[in-house]
Specification:
The chain has helices spanning 8-36, 45-56, 76-85, 96-100, 129-137, 140-144, 159-167, 181-194, 209-214, 238-245, 257-268, 278-286, and strands spanning 122-126, 148-150, 172-176, 201-206, 220-221, 248-249. By secondary structure, it is of the alpha/beta class.
């Protein structure tokens, strides 16, 4: 049955679009539940987009063993349109206000000038500001004891920040970036900004193209080949350089949120305390002062 004055073909197209929107809406609901597991993880809109792509097109069992970076199964405008059309909010999704807010006082030195007065043994710099906020919202900066800032917030590098890193004697600046020309060039850019600061190391946590292929992350393609920055990281393989030169890229947001949190914590945590044992307890007793012993 068709509505009066409306061609039948237009009504069929509208019905098809409505069905597609409902399918994407249901996929968003499932993806949000998966992204928040375990324990109510907070996530960004772009992370929810890639989680929805994984719901709509799970990795096949056979090809899942082969390294590759498939194209997204859902176009971003379609996802954005379905997300905006939802009547209820998505639990766990960081709002635009939270993403655009100033740095968390515990997340980085931007609003804690006292941090500049001490040594800063570790610092995590994220290329994407929204992912920096996501890590802070999940308390990674507290568990790792590592301030988290976005690259745009610490560039150009503040002289006080550089002095705090130098004061720590052996500090490490961890860089979290996309597998893209701008992303792979970010560690070298920070390294050059630090200048000849003795004892400060810049370490890339990824992504690089081989990581994206090994994790089967959805990757995009620019409309035209891109010019690669110089110098390129020495660890890139020729196949990865060619992949980037073709305009291919993979975003860090494509990594499942729980996997991203585990990887960042594993790499940025400081030295762990020794496991409790009888020998450790005896060693502690030998070094204990007289005030630690009980008195009659």
């Amino acid at each position: 049955m068709t509505a009066p004055g409306v061609p039948a073909g237009h009504q069929e197209q509208a019905a098809g679009r409505g069905l597609a929107t409902r399918v994407v809406d249901r996929a968003i609901t499932v993806a949000a539940a998966r992204a928040a597991a375990p324990g109510g993880i907070r996530f960004t809109e772009r992370q929810l987009y890639y989680a929805t792509c994984r719901v709509l097109w799970p990795a096949p069992t056979l090809s899942g063993r082969l390294p590759h970076s498939p194209a997204p199964s859902l176009r971003l405008p379609h996802f954005t349109r379905a997300l905006r059309a939802r009547e209820t909010a998505v639990p766990g999704l960081l709002s635009r206000a939270e993403i655009g807010a100033a740095a968390d006082p515990g997340a980085g030195p931007a609003r804690e000038p006292d941090l500049y007065d001490y040594g800063l043994p570790r610092l995590l710099v994220c290329q994407d500001r929204s992912l920096a906020r996501m890590l802070v919202a999940n308390h990674v900066h507290l568990e790792a004891g590592c301030p988290i800032v976005a690259a745009e917030e610490c560039w150009p590098l503040d002289a006080r920040l550089v002095a705090a890193l130098e004061r720590a004697e052996g500090a490490t600046v961890y860089v979290l970036h996309d597998a893209s020309p701008a992303g792979v060039a970010l560690p070298a850019r920070l390294r050059a900004g630090l200048g000849p600061v003795p004892g400060v190391r810049v370490s890339s946590l990824g992504l690089v193209p081989r990581h994206a292929a090994a994790l089967h992350l959805a990757s995009g393609r620019a409309r035209a080949p891109v010019a690669l920055p110089e110098p390129l990281p020495g660890g890139l393989r020729p196949r990865e350089v060619a992949w980037l030169a073709r305009g291919r890229f993979a975003q860090l947001a494509a990594v499942p949120p729980d996997r991203l949190l585990r990887a960042v914590l594993r790499r940025t945590r400081g030295p762990r305390p020794p496991r409790p044992s009888v020998w450790n307890e005896l060693r502690d007793l030998r070094a204990a002062g007289f005030l630690t012993w009980p008195t009659p």
